[in-house]
From TrEMBL:
It is found in: Cytoplasm. Belongs to the VPS25 family. SUPFAM superfamilies: Winged helix' DNA-binding domain. Keywords: Cytoplasm, Protein transport, Transport. GO terms for biological process: macroautophagy; protein transport to vacuole involved in ubiquitin-dependent protein catabolic process via the multivesicular body sorting pathway. This is Vacuolar protein-sorting-associated protein 25. It comes from the Eukaryota. Pfam families: ESCRT-II (PF05871).
Length: 188
């Protein structure tokens, strides 16, 4: 899902924090300390919003018109520059590297409400708990199979899954093989 949207009939409505209804929240604050606190609040909001709506990647220009960056009640929204500043903060060490730009033009970004390493831990725990070690699973059945329907990683973006599995491969806890559209994974 490229933009931050919610379909009718999806999960319950997202609850925005109180600061979202405070007009200065949408304007860059002039003092460094206040600006840092504002960026941290935006980072938390973006992560929670994306987690709630299961958004893994956002296209900034599209997200500007969604409730994430646009409070229609206040008639306030982040500018493109300010939205990019939020993501820049999230990409930084100060922002706990909770986002990653895709390309130099900074038009699209991964939002890590769970970092790939964190997803890897969730998946590895499930593999351990269900006795799947040594079993070959396709990437598709891992995130779309009946046995994983109730798991948090069900429906995980395939690119996020690949990034997550790469962390397990580096640690010698998994092996990924096959072609792009028919990849499998074996856990150790």
């Amino acid at each position: 899902m490229a933009a931050a949207t919610q379909e009718a009939g999806d999960s319950p409505a997202f609850e925005f924090p109180k600061s979202y209804n405070f007009p200065p929240f949408f304007s860059p604050q002039p003092t460094a300390l206040t600006r840092q606190a504002q960026l941290k609040k935006w980072s938390i909001l973006v992560q929670r919003y994306c987690k709630h709506h299961r958004i893994f990647k956002i296209t900034i220009i599209d997200a500007l018109d969604t409730p994430l960056f646009n409070n229609s009640t206040l008639r306030k929204r982040l500018s493109l520059q300010d939205a990019k500043a939020v993501i820049d903060y999230m990409v930084s060490k100060d922002g706990d590297e909770r986002a990653e730009w895709l390309g130099l033009e900074k038009s699209e970004a991964w939002v890590w409400w769970r970092k790939p390493e964190e997803w890897a831990t969730v998946i590895a725990t499930w593999v351990e708990e269900t006795g799947q070690k040594g079993t070959v699973l396709t990437l598709y059945e891992l995130v779309q199979g009946e046995t994983t329907e109730k798991q948090e990683f069900y429906g995980l973006d395939m690119d996020v899954l690949r990034k997550s599995l790469a962390t397990l491969v580096k640690k010698g806890r998994a092996q990924v093989f096959g072609t792009e559209d028919q990849q499998g994974v074996k856990f150790f």
